[in-house]
Design a protein that fits this description.
- The complex is a heterodimer.
- Helix content of chain A is 78%, strand content 0%.
- Chain A is mostly helical.
- Chain A has one domain (2-248).
- Chain B folds into two domains: 5-80 and 156-226 and 301-319, P-loop containing nucleotide triphosphate hydrolases (Rossmann fold), CATH 3.40.50; 231-293, Alpha-Beta Plaits.
- In chain B, α4 (111-124) crosses α5.
- Classes of the chains: A mainly alpha, B alpha/beta.
- The interface between A and B is medium-sized, with 24 and 31 residues.
């Protein structure tokens, strides 16, 4: 049942020009970033070759590319998640799901997986860029896979938060700006503290989406980062289910 | 809760904040029965149907669909339920075929039977020709049909239709009504409407909701009895003074419709027609018309919904 809802969600995304537009813009922007980092690498290469244990092409091209992609996703995810529930609520199509023999959990998971699948396609397209380097160089695949896992977890977390924001409102635009605001806040939340590292800065650092992403880009896989993302996703999905359930009990 | 009832609603209340939208609503609908839910705007028709379809949780009370408790086992109960909300829940960017296939999947129709189920639903709703068109490009009437097809594609025991003919032209209305009559065989149908002739055309039973309360629950025949005679029209060529008519046995009051035509009001069950006829002939007033007046359905409706809602529920079953 979850599968049917997810596949329809994905299908409907591709029936709207927005999805194609996001994919196109993403390819152009990231291809440009990719080109710049390759250019930089070529400039540095002669000097790096002389240093033993210097960073290789994977460090200097693949890591930054996934890092820039995260920045792009920060903008793109709210655009795609804003409509999942709020627009259905506005067009009153939610009643189709509510009167069908499916649970709220099925609905939320279906929607979440549908949009996540879209972004995994997008991530796969990003991953093709560094893979194209295989023609000429050897990649550090440990680092590549770790970065890919990182960006996949990151985008799934973004989507979970976006789905939740979409359950809160009937106006897609409100869902979009709230999602963007929340993601941005979680992105920069560890900037607090600075020199006066107090008791709380550890907590803020833990909450930061970025802090758990950066190690994965460097090829450092830590279970606590994985757990952080899984908890993040689970939290917002459960909140979404509860919020949707409250629709039936409204007022 | 009778054995053959496919829908049973017991003591349902629904509050929106402090506002009571439904007050102690109970009824049941048997197999093969079409129930019309009537009421002025804002009376609670849609709320009732939303509760029946699981879109809204009642504040108190119970609902059984096909013998399964909707609140305890929503998934099992909803398998036997088809619902068309007042706004058909259509994805405009899908084709009719894609949309119905999705609805069939949502209702767990096995892949092997899906094709046949969709074809049957399309054929019944007259959608065979438009299967490959985008829903967003269809006319309002066709979109409404897709909405109905969606509600019946899984052949549910209970079909709930919220104002199925609203916004349609008279021809389309007739088609939809014919479809509802055709569906009656194997399904129980509840439909809400504020179009009175529609109820007379398609329903077996009528319920009138007013201000959140069920104020009438009666069969169509019972309703027709309710449109009882309470006045007769009397036409005389040589009319006597008004007070002589007033003095006729059984007559409560007299009003002049036009010179020579009078409306005689009488108390229920005291039809004075016979006595009047005798008197008129005896006095040679020149009788040319003596006809009972029937209340129209509309009058009954206005009568009932205007009445103080605290009055008792009028139920034909209780009376009989």
């Amino acid at each position: 049942m979850i599968w049917h809802i997810a596949s329809l969600e994905l299908r409907r995304l591709f029936l709207s020009p927005l999805a194609w537009c996001v994919l196109a813009v993403e390819q152009v922007i990231l291809a440009y970033f990719f080109l710049i980092s390759i250019d930089n690498y070529l400039q540095w290469q002669p000097r790096l070759a002389a240093v033993a244990g210097a960073p290789g092409v994977t460090d200097l091209v693949v890591g930054p590319l996934f890092g820039d992609a995260a920045l792009f996703l920060l903008f793109a995810v709210p655009m795609m998640t804003m409509r999942v529930i709020s627009e259905e609520r506005r067009a009153q199509t939610l009643s189709l799901l509510f009167s069908a023999p499916v649970s709220m959990t099925d609905i939320v998971l279906g929607k979440f997986l549908g949009v996540t699948a879209f972004f995994l396609i997008l991530v796969a397209m990003i991953a093709l860029m560094p893979l194209s380097l295989l023609v000429g160089v050897h990649l550090d695949f440990g680092m590549f896979w770790s970065g890919l896992l990182g960006i996949s977890l990151l985008v799934a977390s973004f989507v979970a938060l976006g789905v939740f924001m979409s359950t809160l409102t009937v106006q897609p635009a409100i869902a979009a700006i709230s999602t963007f605001g929340a993601l941005l806040l979680l992105w920069i939340i560890d900037w607090v503290g600075g020199d006066r590292a107090g008791d709380y800065s550890g907590l803020f650092a833990y909450l930061s989406l970025l802090r758990h992403y950066e190690p994965l880009l460097k090829g450092v896989f830590n279970t606590s980062d994985l757990v952080y993302y899984l908890l993040f996703i689970a939290t917002f999905l459960i909140l979404s289910i509860r919020r949707l359930d409250a629709d039936r009990l409204q007022h | 809760m009778s054995e053959s009832a496919l829908i049973t609603v017991e003591h349902v209340y629904r509050y929106y904040g402090a506002n009571c939208a439904l007050h102690d609503v109970s009824f049941s609908v048997g197999k093969g029965e079409v129930l019309g839910l009537l009421g002025p705007n804002g009376a609670g028709k849609s709320t009732t149907l939303q509760i029946l379809s699981g879109n809204l949780a009642p504040s108190a009370g119970q609902v059984w669909i096909n013998g399964i408790d909707l609140l305890d086992q929503p998934k099992a109960a909803k398998l036997g339920l088809g619902y068309l909300p007042d706004q058909p829940p259509l994805y405009r960017e899908l084709t009719v075929d894609e949309y119905l296939a999705y609805c069939a999947r949502l209702h767990r129709i096995a892949a092997a039977q899906r094709r046949a189920a969709i074809d049957t639903a399309k054929q019944r709703c007259g959608l065979t020709e438009v299967g490959r068109r985008l829903i967003g490009n269809l006319s309002k009437g066709y979109q409404q049909r897709v909405g109905i097809a969606q509600a019946i594609v899984h052949a549910p025991a209970v079909v709930v239709l919220d104002e199925p003919t609203v916004g349609l032209d008279p021809l389309q209305m007739r088609e939809i009504r014919a479809l509802i009559r055709e569906l009656r065989g194997e399904h129980s149908i509840i439909l809400s409407t504020h179009i009175l002739p529609e109820v007379q055309a398609v329903c077996d039973r009528v319920q009138i909701i007013s201000a959140g309360k069920l104020v009438l629950n009666d069969s169509i025949e019972g309703l027709q009895r309710r449109m009882r005679v309470s006045s007769v029209i009397l036409g005389l060529r040589r009319p006597p003074p008004l007070r002589e008519l007033q003095a006729l046995p059984g007559v409560e009051s007299v009003e002049t419709v036009e010179p020579g035509r009078f409306r005689l009001h009488y108390l229920p069950e005291q039809n004075p027609a016979e006595a009047v006829a005798e008197q008129v002939v005896a006095n040679q007033w020149g009788l040319y018309e003596l006809s009972p007046e029937r209340m129209s359905f509309e009058q009954v409706f206005v009568d009932i919904t205007r009445r103080d809602p605290t009055e008792q529920i009028v139920s034909a079953e209780v009376a009989s």
